[in-house]
Amino acid sequence: MPYPPPPEPYGTPYEPAPAEEIVERTHPRIRVVRTINALIHLVCAVFALVLAVHIVLVLGEANSANGFAHLISEWSSGVSLGLRNLFTPDSEKLRTFLNDGLAAVIWLVIGAILTDVITRIGVPGPKRVWYRRSYR
């Protein structure tokens, strides 16, 4: 015996509303701030990367007469922030690790602080709160 036909729906079938296209225009200052922040992040990350590669080359006892090793050594001395002789243990590997490692971390912190300050100053909109104290 065949089954009875399904009942008809009570109302009209669901029809989705026509899609609206909403275009939000980005404020020009936001684009400028994003570009500046990206450049700052790039420069600071490259400096930290050069210092990290120098640490790896020293720990791996790379040939200092090699052109690449010499180039990285020269660049890392230029971006070491004057921290090459901050720590002076007897081991050259430990000295390089401490001094260049600290300089790399400082470069990353400098990049983060600069981009945060530029964003807080340059982005339009409501006042941003630097510090909020909660009284509970």
Describe the overall structure.
Helix 1 (28-59) packs across helix 2 and helix 1 (28-59) packs antiparallel against helix 3 (92-122). This protein is elongated. It has helices at 28-59, 67-78, 92-122. The chain is built from 3 helices and no strands. 12% of the residues are buried. 55% of the residues lie in helices and 0% in strands. It starts with 27 loop residues before the first helix and ends in a 14-residue tail after the last helix. It is mainly α.
Give a quick set of tags describing it:
single chain, 136 residues, mainly alpha, 55% helix, elongated
Number of strands: 0
Class by alpha and beta content: mainly alpha
Distance between the termini: 73 Å
- The radius of gyration is 29 Å
Biggest sheet overview: none
| Strand-residue proportion | under 5%
- Uncertain ranges: none
Number of helices: 3
The succession of helices and strands, N to C, reads HHH
Q: Summarize model confidence as the mean pLDDT.
A: 87
Measured as a percent range, the helix fraction is: 55-70%
Based on CA inertia axes, which overall geometry fits? Answer: elongated
